[in-house]
Amino acid sequence: MREKILSVLKDYDKDNIHIGTIGSHSALNILKGAKEEGFSTVCICREREKKVYENFGVVDKFLIISDYAELLEEEIQDKLRQLNTILIPHGSFNAYIGKFDYLLLPMFGNRELMIWETDRDKQREWLERSGVRMPKKFSSPEEIKGLAIVKYPGAKGGRGYFIVSSSDEFYEISEEMVKKGLIKEEDVKNAEIQEYILGANIYFSFFYSPVYGRIELIAADRRYESTADALGKVPAKEQIRVNINPTYTVVGNFPVVLRESLLVQAFEAAEGIVEVSKKIAYPGMVGAFCIESIFDENATMYVFEISARIVAGTNVGIPTSPYSYILFGENMYMGRRIAREIRLAIEKDMLAELIY
After folding, report:
1. Concatenated DSSP letters of 66-131
2. Is the CB of residue 127 less than 8 Å from the CB of residue 303?
């Protein structure tokens, strides 16, 4: 598979590279960063979303599709190859594409790690081997003791997540979620059930640079979650009376700057995760990744998820975050950092080392 992709890359005009992505998730971030680093851009999007990217003026060429899955069609891929396109994956690639074996285009990062990310069992194995502290996992609803959070596969922005304290609650709320269309009936048996750690959720956006051979902290954020964050506006007695079950659909993000003494835990986690990534999917991490964590009342960090690509929370770092500014001394954000790595790799004849 990689040999075929490298064969495509070999035929590219390296002086006329286009940076491309699906028009969704963090596309504005990616496309603006590409423009700032001197690349032409291509946006693969549906007609309805086209107006967003036209409005912001970050796209040189549009490729209009009716469904994201059309990216897997040979005709679409051939058009992108003619533009010497390097794809930048984000959460919508996991949620709506998934079949990377059929995507014969150079894609920045390690697509094998994106598969590990979307498989709950593989992801947990990765994190456990990295030595990070994690919430306890319940293998069945009957094991639930105390607060637990229920999650479902795929990068759907927290849609359909909910909290329970017993197996009875699990089945009751699952049934409600199915009726509301938030999850499918077959999803119930595939639920990931984790101990719910009470604390502050922090999402660390890191970058592993093959060019510099280092781990970089680019930004940190927290999520703004629809019904969960709206509960504070509803009196407790009314919550009970109408039986509100909050879900965690993400509608936005806030930037966060941590107490400096807490950063060592984040860097230790990142180092372990990168080291293990080399063993499970050669050559390991390439580019953006996010460690999703909780700090409890003792300021102890628990890692509950890993994303092996750019996350939407990095959008709050445009044009810069305190961490990226300290590191680079200029406006720097994840979309631009990705494009900077590609530009440096072209200059150093290392481009193939970013494509896996």
Report:
1. SSGGGGGSHHHHHHHHHTTEEE---HHIIIII--GGG--S-BBB-HHHHHHHHSHHHHHHHHHHHT
2. yes
CA 355 – CA 286 distance, rounded (Å): 8
pLDDT, tens digit, 9 for 90 and up, residues 204-225: 999 999 999 999 999 999 999 8
Structure tokens at 342: 């590609």
Closest CA to 268 of 197, 211, 210, 206: 206
Q: What is the DSSP string of 304-320?
A: EEEESS--GGGGGGSS-
Structural element, H or E, at residue 208: strand 200-209
Q: At what angle do helices 120-130 and 263-280 cross, to 10 degrees?
A: 120
Cβ-contact 355, 108 below 8 angstroms: yes
Kindly tell me the burial class for residue 160, based on how many C-beta atoms sit within 10 Å of its own C-beta (0-12, 13-18, 19 or more): buried
pLDDT of residue 180: 77
By the 8 A CB rule, do 313 and 254 touch?
A: no
**Quick one: which H or E segment has residue 28?**
helix 27-36
Looking at residue 154, what is its pLDDT? 53
- pLDDT of 261 reads 97
How large is the average pLDDT for residues 74-103?
Answer: 93
User: Would you give the DSSP letter of residue 60?
Assistant: S
Rg (CA), the chain: 21
Tell me how crowded residue 303 is: count the other CB atoms within 10 A of its CB: 23
User: Per residue in 9-31, pLDDT tens?
Assistant: 999 999 999 999 999 999 999 99
In which band, very low, low, confident or very high, does the pLDDT at 155 lie, cut at 50, 70 and 90? very low
Q: How far apart are CA 187 and CA 153, in angstroms?
A: 8
Region of 158 (left: φ > 0; alpha: ψ -120 to 50; beta: rest) is left
- As a whole number, mean pLDDT of residues 123-151 equals 94
Please state whether beta strands 287-295 and 301-307 pair in parallel, antiparallel, or not at all (unpaired). Answer: antiparallel
pLDDT at 87 over 90: yes
